[in-house]
Amino acid sequence: MVTPPYLQAGDTIGIVSTARKVNKTELQPALDLLARWGLKVKLGESIGAEKDQFAGEDALRARDFQQMLDDEQIKAIWCARGGYGTVRIIDLLDFQKFAANPKWIIGYSDITVLHAHLNGRGVETLHAQMPLDIDKKTVETATSLKELLFGKPYTIRYTDISGISRNGSAEGVLVGGNLSVLYSLCGSASQLNTAGKILFLEDLDEYLYHVDRMLQNLKRNGYFNSLNGLIIGGLTDMNDNTIPYGKTAEEIVEEIVSKYNFPVCYYFPAGHVNDNRALIMGRNVQLTVTGPDVALQFTS
Which GO terms describe its molecular function (predicted)? Predict the structure, then answer.
């Protein structure tokens, strides 16, 4: 995997929206944060643009992202927010210049489209909090992003309170992101290859039966067959029907992967949660699960 150059004080980050609309005022806390980090900012034309729920027409969002990809002065592209819309522009983008001049692509949720697509092209990306609402998250949320952008050694340790984690140690390249998005990419040119890897999954505001349906689909697509380890982040604000499904989201995962032999942890501090730690997608990691104690070390 190719590691984009780490940032230095004075570098410029481009901010665009590939999905839902957002304005500069909403991003001001993030702009102030970047200034404190010694970084410059270039806002794309999608910031403040509107077309229904989107940050402008598909063509505008694609053009905006492409300009940031091709601009050699832009050292990282920070996607302003999620929602929905990135999949509508992914096939409009040309990554040829990016391949010769890679830079960090940052975001999560709907930005999983870009993480998966670029993983298949051998480039690391950052699954991390977006500019919108970063001031409402934990201090560790922003600090972890800064540490990774500036190339600091990085390990996440936490306590898994699920009581259903599976002990073990595994090594592999970290892949994944939002479950709903990964489910939607099955069968496309952006589908993940999970063989020999560590898979991270998170999601928000889904019905429990649909969580099962999506995981059944990943299972039937072979996502778990040769997997080395599974990390479950926030499965947040799940919904149920009048007649209960009968399992929590975490219990649904446990049932789906029960026949496989790899370590599994739950409630990992990443995703649609208050403590949304940054992750390097495409980086080799060491996952260690010992009862409630979990460590994820980014090794090389």
Answer: carboxypeptidase activity; serine-type peptidase activity
pLDDT in tens, 30-80: 999 999 999 999 999 999 999 999 999 999 999 999 999 999 999 999 999
* 3-class DSSP state of 166: strand
**Cα–Cα distances in angstroms (integers) from residue 216 to residues 114, 213, 230, 249, 266, in the given order:** 23, 5, 15, 13, 18
Question: In which domain, by residue range, is 177 found?
Answer: 155-298
How confident is the model over 165-192, as a mean pLDDT? 98
Does some domain include residue 2? no
**Are the beta carbons of 78 and 103 closer than 8 angstroms?**
no
| SS3 assignment, position 243 | coil
Asked if residue 62 and residue 32 are part of one domain, the reply reads yes
Instruction: Identify the H or E element spanning 74.
Output: strand 74-79
Quick check: helix, strand or coil at residue 219? helix
Residue 299 binned pLDDT confidence (cut-offs 50, 70, 90):
confident
* Residues whose CB falls within 8 Å of the CB of residue 26, separated by 6 or more in sequence, listed in order: 132
pLDDT at 183 over 80: yes
Q: What percent of the chain has pLDDT over 90?
A: 99
Determine, yes or no, domain membership for 19: yes
User: Using an 8 Å Cβ cutoff, are 223 and 186 in contact?
Assistant: no
Q: Are residue 49 and residue 80 in the same domain, yes or no? A: yes
Which residues are known to be catalytic? 109, 202, 272
Residues 283, 174 contacting (CB under 8 angstroms): yes
181 in the same domain as 83: no
- The answer on 193 and 80 residing in a single domain is no
